[in-house]
């Protein structure tokens, strides 16, 4: 005969179902699967990090202080500047090739100055077109400036062992030449002595003065003569 299920039979079936769901084997398999998944994820991340180059972080832009700035390496920069300047002083180079203007070594430039004399550029007139006040006739101030700029004061010193005759009190006096003749040191004599100094050599001196023919303007020549005339008359 059939027996009706009792309440105890229902409780026993429920306990058996719960024990089936929470079996240690199932729990272990699930945990093992999770561990494998975590391990694979970590391994993949490590492999990507090993293969891929590290991302370089952008360098911050250096902010320089306003000029003038302190030198970072003054000794090195000075040596570089000195080497550049020395190279320019001792080599040939073009300044303006189309115009034919070149830079020559300083030693050669000094040699040309000795051979040809000083090159003097006439001063520019005033802005209104009038002559410069320093170049008026009889201007002894301009004559003194030219006398020093041309290097005349280096030889006409007035000392006993000077390379050129003294000029103090010379104007209007009689001058004895190497040829034995005598001339008066007037304006014509001074002009000739500046432009062609070899024409009349003063007795006891050598022909070492360079010619200033074409090197000075007429106004500058007049100013030089005026200055020489004033020497010894002050």
- Regions with little confidence, pLDDT below 50 for 5+ residues: 124-138
Secondary structure: helix percent: 40-55%
CATH class of the domain at 133-230: Mainly Alpha
Number of helices: 7
Give the mean pLDDT: 76
Q: Let me know the number of strands.
A: 4
Query: What general outline do the C-alpha atoms trace?
Result: rod-shaped
CATH architecture of the domain at 133-230: Orthogonal Bundle
What is the first-to-last residue Cα distance? 167 Å
Element-level helix/strand string = HHHEEHHEEHH
Query: For the record, what is the CATH homologous superfamily label of the domain at 133-230?
Result: Cytochrome c-like domain
What would you call the quaternary organization?
single chain
| Major sheet | 2 strands, antiparallel
Strand order of the largest sheet: 1-2
**Radius of gyration using CA atoms only:** 51 Å
The helix-and-strand class reads: mainly alpha
Percentage of residues in strands? 5-15%
The CATH topology of the domain at 133-230 is what?
A: Cytochrome Bc1 Complex, Chain D, domain 2
Describe the structure.
This protein is mainly alpha-helical. Among the domains are: 75-116, no CATH class; 133-230, Cytochrome c-like domain (Cytochrome Bc1 Complex, Chain D, domain 2, Orthogonal Bundle). The chain is 44% helix and 6% strand. The strands form two sheets. A two-stranded antiparallel sheet has the order 1-2. Strands 3-4 form a two-stranded antiparallel ribbon. Helix 5 (140-149) crosses helix 7 (218-230) and helix 6 (187-195) packs across helix 7 (218-230). Mean pLDDT is 76; it is low at 124-138.
């Amino acid at each position: 005969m059939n027996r009706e299920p009792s309440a105890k039979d229902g409780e026993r079936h429920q306990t058996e179902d719960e024990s089936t769901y929470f079996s240690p084997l199932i729990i272990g398999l699930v945990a093992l699967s999770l561990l494998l998944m975590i391990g694979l994820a970590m391994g993949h991340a490590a492999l990507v990090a090993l293969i891929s180059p590290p991302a370089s972080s952008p360098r911050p832009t250096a902010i320089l202080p306003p000029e003038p700035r302190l030198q970072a390496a003054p000794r090195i920069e000075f040596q570089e500047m000195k080497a550049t300047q020395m190279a320019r002083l001792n080599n040939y180079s073009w300044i303006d090739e189309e115009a034919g203007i070149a830079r020559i070594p300083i030693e050669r430039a000094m040699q040309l100055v000795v051979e040809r004399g000083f090159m003097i550029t006439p001063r520019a007139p005033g802005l209104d077109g009038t002559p410069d006040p320093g170049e008026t006739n009889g201007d002894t101030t301009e004559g003194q400036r030219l006398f020093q700029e041309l290097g005349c004061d280096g030889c006409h010193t007035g000392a006993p062992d000077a390379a050129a005759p003294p000029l103090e009190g010379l104007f209007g006096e009689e001058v004895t030449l190497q040829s034995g003749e005598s001339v008066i040191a007037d304006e014509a004599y001074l002009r000739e002595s500046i432009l062609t100094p070899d024409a009349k050599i003063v007795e006891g001196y050598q022909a070492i003065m360079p010619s200033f023919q074409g090197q000075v303007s007429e106004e500058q020549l007049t100013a030089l003569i005026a200055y020489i005339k004033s020497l010894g008359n002050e």
